[in-house]
Amino acid sequence: MQNLLDTIRQCEVCLKHLPQGARPIIEASKDSKILLISQAPGRVVHESGIAWKDQSGKKLREWLGVDEDTFYNTSNFAILPMGFCYPGKAKTGDMPPRKECAPLWHDQVFLELNNVKLILLIGAYASTYYLPDEKTKLTEKVADYEKHLPKFWTLPHPSPVNRFWRMKNPWFEETVVPKLQQKIASILS
Length: 189
Description:
Layout: H1 2-9, E1 34-37, H2 43-48, H3 55-64, H4 68-71, E2 77-79, H5 101-112, E3 118-122, H6 124-130, H7 138-143, E4 152-155, H8 163-168, H9 171-188
Parallel strand pairs: 1-2, 1-3, 3-4
């Protein structure tokens, strides 16, 4: 596993498309119990090199009901973005994740993960990629999370940009998040 992670962290396949340069972000161990598949690191994470060490990560840890020590323990959580590097800024939020990463690396990472009990699909890019036959919008996938259990659980992206989605869909934090926290606690106990 470590050799694969080192190789991915040195990847420059799409360097010419990355305005801030390549800095692939990935965290995992063979023992990881929960796999987080999200879009791509933001600028703050690109600068620090620490996955989810931003406001989105703070909200995600709140939803999961875990502290930073639990979250950053790779025996608990593996972090596998759709795009490993910061793709640059768009008009609202960041550019989409680069399309090269998931087909190039995801299957190889999956082969190394022996203990995953749950895959969290965070945001539209991950849910569209991993649930290709599911033609519903992200909101419906989030509401219908039980349909894809026990393998997948779809979540909205916890970015501050998505605060309007959360305001329009209060049911998510009222009813889904408590069930998610129970599931996470049962896996990590």
